[in-house]
Amino acid sequence: MAILIILCCIILLIALVSWAKINPFLAFLIVSVTAGLLLKIPPLKLMASIQKGLGDTLGSLVIIICLGAMLGKLIAASGAAQKIAEVLVNAVGKKYIQWALVFAGFIIGIPLFYGIGFVLMVPLIFSVVYKYKLPAVYIGLPMLASLSVTHGFLPPHPSPAALVVQFNANMGLTLIYGLMIAIPAIIIAGPLFAQLLKKIPSKPLDTFRPEDMPADKLPGAFKSFFIALLPVLLLMMTAALPYISNIPPELLKWLTYIGEPSMVMLITLAVATYFLGIKQGKSMKQLNVVYVDAIKDIAVILLIIGGSGSFKQVLTDSGASNEIGLQLQNLHLHPLILGWLIAAIIRASLGSATVAGLTAAGIIGATMQQNHVDPNLMVLSIGAGSLAFSHVNDSGFWLYKEYFNLTIKDTFKSWSAMESLIAVVGLGGVMLLNVFVG
């Protein structure tokens, strides 16, 4: 009975978001209340469950996501992202320009949220297209594949960061495993797949012709690369600490503290504020405007994450999660495959990778614990599934279509196929890693 109730609630969530066009946060609250009442949680306890789920989920994430948004906005506004891309493109020339853009998208995509990265990278893509007279989809899609992979697989992006917390995974290990899977996923769904797309007609709109910052206003190359990669370097250092011997206990304590994800983001933002802000001649008043705008960009994402936490808590407090976990075992699917499949189905239904990942996490949690699955791999499996089957209910689908001025058919052939390829390759990478670390 619990499975039927949860299925109906997921259908209700899909209907509220897709058909009724209700904000996902409000939809999650409505569905959480509905699920709690149907699963017979006492009304006086139901609101406490909803508040606990929202608070527990956001409590450890608000710092990471907000600081990450501020960092990404500053990297974009300071010209550091433009500098990274220009250095890479100038280093390889026209022959390997596609690979340079892929690498630029990957580097820039690590600290930037997807929407910011997309809007930032598209002018760069179009400047290359106009300069070298190359097919826009062939050049642009691989870079966008890099942004998608970082969005779905790598902390501190909202969905993987939230999943790390929900599954009690290790942020540093998840990042390392995610990087190992991300590289083949980008290569296959990016440059290799794009070879089939050279004949897709695309004439980017004049509206999107880039307005680059002048070269003398850009920060230095080393500074740009170092700050963009600093969160990754610090998180990887923390993950390696247990394997390093002879570290004095007092030093180990401080290194572990510095390697906490919230501290990593705070340290990186402080470094960026000085070198990309103050040293570039910006006042703190100007920088605060950038940071406030960044928070506005991700406020809705935070609410959606909180709403998904409420739904998960209702499932947990009602006992439905355990019952679902036991029932799903009868499907005889590996929990990593099951997590991927649930996320993929919700992604196809709702269009949001973040909502898909977080909803799947609430459903799969009990099964994962009972089967002793590596939580870092489950984060990546659900992250991969949350990228599958992007179509007309996904805002990224329309961004890509309109910016590249494509038909619906060609958008399906390029964008939707690319996102699904990433999801499938990501699952394959997770299952391969599971052989060695599971």
From TrEMBL:
**Regions crossing the membrane:** 30-46, 58-76, 96-129, 136-154, 174-194, 225-245, 257-277, 289-311, 337-365, 377-400, 420-437
Membrane topology reported for the UniProt record: Multi-pass membrane protein
Keyword set includes Transmembrane helix = yes
What's in the keyword line of the UniProt record?
Cell membrane, Membrane, Transmembrane, Transmembrane helix, Transport
Where located? Cell membrane
Q: Where does the signal peptide begin and end?
A: none
Q: Where would you say this protein principally sits, based on its record?
A: membrane
The family database entries (Pfam families) matched by this protein are listed as: GntP_permease
Q: Family per UniProt?
A: Belongs to the GntP permease family.
The entry's protein name is Gluconate transporter
